[in-house]
Amino acid sequence: MIVISNPTAIANEINTIHALFEHGLELLHVRKPDFSATEMKTFVSKIKTTFRHRLVLHSHHQLALEFGIDRIHFTEKNRVATSEEHLKKWKEKKFSLSTSIHQMSDFEELSSVFDYAFFGPVFESISKSNYVSNLDFKKELKQRKNNNTALIALGGITSENIKTALAFGFDDVALLGSIWNNNHSIENFKLCHDLL
């Protein structure tokens, strides 16, 4: 199970991140689209060094080496703008690469350099109002041919629907709104974690 950071800074965020790791979080995607390189550096430096190998940077990839991070994420826009040759250079440096997709056809055409891809919103988004997909994910995933890249369900994932997402054929799930958009972050994480 993956957790994606809140896109903007929130109160007690670093303590919550540490608690999530202490309760079994495998990967935290650091998605702060408006952060400058300096702000990202400051943010990552506050996370305990023992957890940094579980971080995935969505931006300012150049900071990864400095912090001992070997995982980077390419947004859909960045993926399209990045050459296959450049992606392969990251892989040669032993980086794990991930990306985001919004159509099954894009997933099928993904380069094999990507270890996994987020696909969603699977359910109505918790963090973005009125953000819902019109795709039939059960039907979409039945046509899946790309087995080189893991497919991660994103969007509206809660303890109530996590099993449904996996039944659609997703390999794993990512949480965002169910962690950051309420006062029970750790409890919600544990509920979801225990279902996997």
Q: Quote the distance from N terminus to C terminus.
A: 8 Å
C-alpha-based Rg, rounded: 16 Å
Number of helices: 10
Global morphology: globular
Mean pLDDT equals: 93
* Structure classification: alpha/beta
The main β sheet shows up as: 8 strands, parallel
* Helical content band: 25-40%
Helix-strand pattern, N to C? EHEHEHEHHEHEHEHEHH
Query: Which regions are unreliable across 5 or more consecutive residues at pLDDT < 50?
Result: none
Q: Main sheet: which strands, in order across?
A: 3-2-1-8-7-6-5-4
- Work out the number of β strands: 8
Strand content: 15-25%
Description:
The radius of gyration is 16 Å and the shape is globular. The protein is α/β, with parallel strands linked by helices and 196 residues long. Strands 3-2-1-8-7-6-5-4 form an 8-stranded parallel β-sheet. It is 36% helix and 18% strand. The chain has helices at residues 13-22, 37-45, 63-67, 76-81, 84-92, 104-108, 137-142, 162-168, 177-180, 185-194, and strands at residues 2-4, 27-30, 55-57, 71-74, 96-101, 114-119, 150-154, 172-175.
In brief, what are we looking at here?
The protein is of the alpha/beta class and 196 residues long. The chain has ten helices and eight strands. Helices cover 36% and strands 18% of the residues.
Entry keywords:
single chain; 196 residues; alpha/beta
